[in-house]
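Project standup — Tuesday

K.O.: blocked on the structure for the chain from last sprint. Re-posting the sequence here as requested.
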Amino acid sequence: MKGLGELERTVMEVLWAREDAGQIAATARDVSRALAGDRDLAHTTVMTVLDRLAKKGFLERERDGRAWRYRPVASREGYVTELMLGALNETGDRDAALAHFVRSVSKNEIGVIRQALADLMTTDRAKTGRTAAELTTKEPPA
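H.V.: unblocked you, prediction finished:
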């Protein structure tokens, strides 16, 4: 997945924040108002950015009278995950890149990674009766 430009990212942040707050999809006017304090953008510029984001697949849109309502296709976390996976695909050695990444994160972040792996292993065991490590081996369960 390609990265977002600065203005696209700013618009997406508005939409992700609305979603986090439990608000419904936003119109171009909603986004323009949200950006008014930070950026001096023409309403037509916001409309163009929203249209381009929808065409790129970052947003879904639906008609609401004469206006369009926009909502993100993926969460902020989902978007960042896709960026990280894309970066890994660009490396010649995914294992080395992952190991380097893990060595560069904080102790708190290591705890988050450990918990995510433990949760994954618990989920795998519940679904299959086997751990994630057992699922990656060729031998059938005993």
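K.O.: great, moving the ticket to review. The mean pLDDT is 88. Helices lie at 6-20, 28-35, 43-55, 76-90, 94-104, 107-128, 132-135.
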